[in-house]
């Protein structure tokens, strides 16, 4: 067989592999989006500080360097049961993506869309103090 047939076969096989990888990653993203939409709630948080955490390098494992964007904030949770109300303020560390991480500044209040410990969207902010 000529060399160009081998090249075409390799390109076709690579394309098929990429297509199936794309479909599986798209399915995962759709599942995450559905979970996020089902559990999201809008809350007001007071940002204490933010940090970028680099994952430790492990010998013998060659993974790409990953950065995790984290925001530590004070959140007030309220619960009402049989006429009695209970409120508690807690410091919580949230995960956030890079685009939203750059919008947030410490010592400010923000309205955000939360889903568990993930901040999906920053809606507004106002400086305190």
Descriptive report:
This protein is α+β, with helices and mostly antiparallel strands and 129 residues long. Helix content is 33%, strand content 47%. A five-stranded mixed β-barrel has the order 1-2-3-5-4. The longest helix is centred in the N-terminal third of the chain and has 37 residues. The termini are far apart. The mean pLDDT is 86.
Oligomer: single chain
Number of helices: 2
Distance between the termini: 76 Å
How many β strands by DSSP? 5
Identify the notable features of this structure and list them briefly.
2 helices, alpha+beta, 129 residues, 33% helix, 5 strands, OB fold (Dihydrolipoamide Acetyltransferase, E2P), 5-stranded mixed beta barrel, elongated
Quick structural overview:
The chain has helices at residues 3-39, 98-103; strands spanning 41-54, 67-81, 84-96, 108-115, 118-127. The chain has 129 residues and is α+β, with helices and mostly antiparallel strands.
Write the layout of secondary structure elements.
Elements: H1 3-39, E1 41-54, E2 67-81, E3 84-96, H2 98-103, E4 108-115, E5 118-127
Parallel strand pairs: 3-5
Antiparallel strand pairs: 1-2, 1-4, 2-3, 4-5
